[in-house]
Amino acid sequence: MYTLGIDLHKKSSLWILIGEQRTELFKESVPVHPKDISIALKKIHVPLDDIQVAIEPVCGYRWVTKLLEEAGMKVHIAHPRKVQLIAQSTKKNDTEDARTLANLLQSGFFPEAHKASEEIYKLRLLLRERTFIVRMRTGVKNQLHGIATTQGLHTIKGANPLHKKGKVGIMASDNFVMKELHYLNEVLEKRIAPFDEKLAEEIKKYPTAALLMSVPGVGIVTALTIMAEVDDFSRFATPEKLTRYAGLVPRERSSGGVVKHGGITCEGSAPLRTVLVESAMRIREDNAAALYAFVKRLTLITGAKKARVALARKMLSIMWKMVKDNKPYNKDILSFSNTTKVSDLEARTDA
Q: Is the domain of 252 the same as that of 274?
């Protein structure tokens, strides 16, 4: 078996092919273009079916790896946070990076990441771009409030720039900046609507996402985001592995019998972690009494913010169980206990 290490950039890449004895058989600087990649593949004088590829998930890796797979190669995607030898090397250049990737895969120490399907990738893109526009709209609203405050408008009753009366007053005034910000806010509102319509169609394709919507505080956007970021729930053998993937578990520094826990790792998918915490913030006594009781109890021990993070972790564990059993949320599922005990959560939860 031959191993090809590729150090990929936006416009260029460095390829190094090694054999079973780690001898260098091929080295080439390849422009990142379909035509140049095809030319490079023809220069390799070993069967392409016998080549395994090590590459990091950067730039246009999805279409590049697709071309390599179509040529018969078996592609392995490196876990970006676990390829420490590249980041910590005292001699770092494209050649060394490509060689290190190839050697790691050849030796069996290659930390491989999951590659989502094209369908899931498109869903992620749809959701993340919607989030981008929503954040832009939020920024515009915050800017309007900020300008209103600097001009003392916040002291005038009914002058809230985002309320109907306040907006009418601004549009009738000669305040050019605030008027333009209102126009921009209206445009962004209109651009979010098509995304929401598209997501309403997408939810029909994913029974798992519809199942997740039975959880209090989880709507279409949240359910689809969880579905897109987790991809296949069966990839995770236990709920603890799933919560670790979401970066919702505490850091641990243990030595000599002394165990220390810190803040959550924040590893893995940031969009997944964000929607889970936002869902936890929507839990109230009137829509989920048992979950609210859980967070209320923890609040007295850890504080409100840390308690909500713990609730987000608990909710994700419950979702894992729901998907595994293919059952909607109900009060009985709250008795489900994963490998992390509730008492442990209370003792070591950090935001």
A: yes
Residue 216 lies in a domain: no
Query: What is the tally of structural domains in the chain?
Result: 3
Question: Is there a domain that residue 210 lies in?
Answer: no
Query: Could you tell me whether strands 2-8 and 51-55 are parallel, antiparallel, or unpaired per DSSP bridges?
Result: parallel
Coil, helix or strand at residue 132: helix
Q: What angle do CA 179, 185, 188 make, to 5 degrees?
A: 145
- Cβ contacts of 59-63, under 8 Å, gap ≥ 24: 59/8, 59/9, 59/10, 59/32, 60/8, 60/10, 60/32, 61/8, 62/121
3-state secondary structure of 93: coil
Predicted confidence (pLDDT) at residue 337 exceeds the cutoff of 60: no
Distance CA 183, CA 262 (A): 45
CA–CA gap between residue 168 and residue 217 (Å, rounded): 34
In a domain, 211, yes or no: no
Burial pattern 75-90, b for ≥16 Cβ within 10 A else e, equals bbbbeeeebeebeeee
Domain that holds residue 79: 2-107
**Amino acid letter for position 255:** S
The pLDDT confidence band at residue 251, using thresholds 50, 70 and 90, is confident
pLDDT for 306-331, tens place per residue? 999 999 999 999 999 999 999 999 86
Cα 132 to Cα 230, 265, 316, 324: the distances in Å are: 20, 24, 24, 32
Nearest CA to 137 out of 182, 176, 200 is that of 182
Helix axes 118-150, 270-281, angle to 10 degrees: 60
H or E segment to which residue 195 belongs? helix 176-202
Quick one: 246 and 331 in the same domain?
yes
Buried b (16+ CB within 10 A) or exposed e, 109-124: ebeeeebbeeebeebb
Q: Are residues 195 and 258 in the same domain?
A: no
Rounded CA gap, 169 and 150, in Å? 17
How large a percentage of the chain has pLDDT more than 90?
Answer: 69
In a domain, 218, yes or no: no
Tokens of 157: 């009753």
Q: Which residues pair with 14 in a beta bridge?
A: 7, 29
What's the whole-number mean pLDDT along residues 283-302? Answer: 91
- What is the DSSP-derived secondary structure letter of residue 78? B
